[in-house]
Design brief:
Elements: E1 17-25, E2 28-32, E3 38-42, H1 47-58, E4 61-65, E5 76-78, E6 81-85, H2 90-109, H3 120-140, E7 141-150, H4 157-164, E8 169-173, H5 181-184, H6 190-197, E9 202-205, H7 208-222, E10 225-227, E11 230-232, E12 238-243, H8 250-258, H9 260-272, E13 278-285, H10 292-304, E14 313-320, H11 327-347, E15 355-358, H12 364-373, E16 376-379, H13 388-396, E17 403-407, E18 420-422, H14 427-439, H15 442-458, H16 461-475
Parallel strand pairs: 1-4, 1-7, 4-6, 7-8, 8-9, 9-12, 13-14, 13-16, 14-15, 16-17, 17-18
Antiparallel strand pairs: 2-3, 5-6, 10-11, 11-12
Helix pairs in contact: 1-16, 2-3, 3-4, 6-7, 8-13, 9-12, 10-11, 10-14
The protein binds 6-O-phosphono-alpha-D-glucopyranose.
GO biological process, one term: trehalose biosynthetic process
InterPro entries: Glyco_trans_20
Family: Belongs to the glycosyltransferase 20 family.
Amino acid sequence: MPEPCPRRPPRVVNVPAELVIVANRLPVDRVTGPDGEPEWRASPGGLVTAIEPVLRANNGVWIGWPGGTDSGLEPFEHDGLTLDPIALSAEEIEGFYEGFSNATLWPLYHDVVAKPEFHREWWDSYVDVNRRFAEHAAARAAKGAMVWVHDYQLQLVPQMLRELRPDVHIGFFLHIPFPPAELFQQLPWRRQILEGLLGADLVGFQLPGGAQNFVRLVRQRVGHKTHRDLVYLPDGRTVRASAFPISIDVKGFEKLARQESVTARAKEIREALGGPRRIFLGIDRLDYTKGIHARLRAFSELIAEGELDVEDAVFVQVATPSRERVEQYRVLRDDIDRLVGRINGDHGRIGTPAISYLHASYPREEMAALYRAADIMVVSPYRDGMNLVAKEYVACQYDDGGALILSEFAGAAYELRQAWLINPYDLNGMKAALREAYHADAKDLSRRMRAMRKTIKSADITAWARSFLQAMDEVRPAHGKTLLPADRD
Ligand code: G6P
C-alpha cells in the first residue's frame, strides 16, 4: 500500500516521457479527509503493482482520473511515481463513467449478466473523454515513446492517439473479458470500438478466447485480413491480438501473509467468529457479475438441510462498495442486504450468525489476515476477466492449507485447474463443491494448493508486464530501446 501523500503534493516538470500509462483511474484517488482537507488514497484495482516497476525503470508518467470532479490539478509525484490527473465533469462522470463504461460496456462484456443500456448521449461523452485522454497522452509522450492504454473505458484512445502521434508505440490491454461476436454485435457503435482498438500495435486480452473473438469480429465487421493472432491493415500496419493473463505480486502477498501482525490478526478474526471449525470467505467488489447471491444461497441451503451447522461453519462475505450511483449496483446492494438478513434471521443463533457480512473496503494487511483465517475461499463470478482475489488467496497459503472454490467463468480458472471448479448457475453443483471442500482431508487440500501455488509463482505480475513489453518489442521494435524492468528479487 503506498504511503499517504503529503497534503500539497510536489509538482513535477512536464518533461516528455519515454513511457506513458493511460488508465481511467490513477493509482490514487483524491478524497476529502476527516478534517475536510483533500487527501490521496489507493484507488480500486490492482494495476499499480503491475505497472510500478516498469514505470520506475523508465521514469514514466501515469495519466488518469483521480475520482471526483476537481479540475485544474497539476501533475505531481506520489511514492516516486509521476502522476498526471485528468478531470471529469459531473456530466462526464454520468455519461462516460457511470453510463457508457459501466452501464453499457461492463454488462455487455460480461455475458450480458445484466441488461446493457444504449444511449447516444453516453456514447458522445465516451468519445469526448477518450479524445481528452488521447490528447493528453500525445502531449506527454516523447518521440518514439511507448504508450500503454488500459481497459474498456478507453478503447478509442489507441486510434485517436495514432492520428495525433504516428511516431509512438501503442499497446492496449483489456482487463475484462472480450465478448463473443453474438453479444458484441448488439453495440450500435461496434465498428468504432474495433477501429479504436486497431490503433494499437498490440492488443492484449486476459484469455486466448477474448483475442480470438476480437480477431473474428475485425475480419467480419471491419473486413481486414487476419491470420491467427495478426490483423493486416490496408496501410501496411500489422496489429497483434494475443492473450496475456494478468497476475499479482505473489512474493509480496506471501511476505505480507507471513508477517507476525497478520498471523495474530487472523487468529483474532477466528476467535471473534466464535472459533468455528471452518470459515468460508468471499471478497468482491459489490458487483452483479460476482455471483455473491448464488454462493450465499448455496451456503444457506446446506445449513437449512442440516449438512452444515452454524456452530461449525460461518460465511464471511466482504463486499467492497463500488459504482454506487449506478442503478443496477443499488438494486444489487438492496438484494444482498435482504438475503443476508433473511439467512441470518432463519438460521443464525444469538452471537452466531450464519453470514458475517461487511460492506466495506479494507487495506491489504486486513485482506491478508482474512485470507489466512479462511479455510475455504469461494470465488463464484458469472463472468470475470481474471479475478485476482483467487490468486491472492493462493499466494497467502504458504503452508499449502486452505481450499479454493472457483467459477469456471473466471479467467483465473484457466490457470488454477486444481481448485474445485464450479458453474455458478448450478446451485446443486456449487453445494456439492462446498460440501466436498468442507470435508476434504489435509492431503487432498495440500496437493491441490501446492500445484496452484507452483502455477502462480511461475507467472507473477512482473512476468506479465515483461511478456507484454516483449511482445510490443516484437510487433514494433523500439530501435534498440527496451522498457523491460530489471529482474527483481
Ligand atoms: C475492474 C476494472 C477496472 C476498474 C476496477 C474498479 O477491475 O477492470 O478498470 O478500475 O474494476 O472499478 P471502478 O469503476 O471503481 O474504477
